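Sample intake sheet
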Amino acid sequence: MTATHTTPSAENTAAAIEVAQLHPDALDIGENVRDSVDLAQTPDFVESIRENGVLEAISAVRTADGTIVVRDGQRRTLAARETGLTSIPVVIYPDTEGSDKARAVDRIGKQITANRHREKLTAAQHTRGVAQMLEFGASITKVSKTLAMSKKDVKAQAAVGKAEAARTALDAGQLDLEQAAVVASSRQPETPKPSTSS
């Protein structure tokens, strides 16, 4: 099913933007600034796609001959193919460039911009998120599958996620995850000392 939205282009004419669920094989990967992708180097990413599907829509352009060419999301598309997904979200923009050179300049500029401005979660934010999933009732097995992490890492991240000092040291690079987990586990809530009367 395809939902089509119309938005005005820079020239004040209507350009149709489509939002669709498509089979990953229906997309042409095309040229990309990221000139090589080795999914074997990122098994956690592939497992995340297998478990959760593609969560961030692929950005693509529909060329004059109807081909849908990926502009942003080649790794997600390749992982979707590898894991056997049959439907992924795609935002399809019309091809508004008049020449191959202008099209290439537009593609390269958008690919660099899309990747340059992505900001990953910090290690501390990630651990806090893991702790929150468990606090909301998810099992360690569920978190492990959803995030494509080992159960051992889920436990370590959850421990760190609950301890602000450990999270701070982790983000500052003072401790690695294993060390931060030890610090977090060793911190016991202080028991108040009995008051002495004078």
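Comment: Residues 60 and 92 are 5 Å apart (CA to CA). The radius of gyration is 23 Å.
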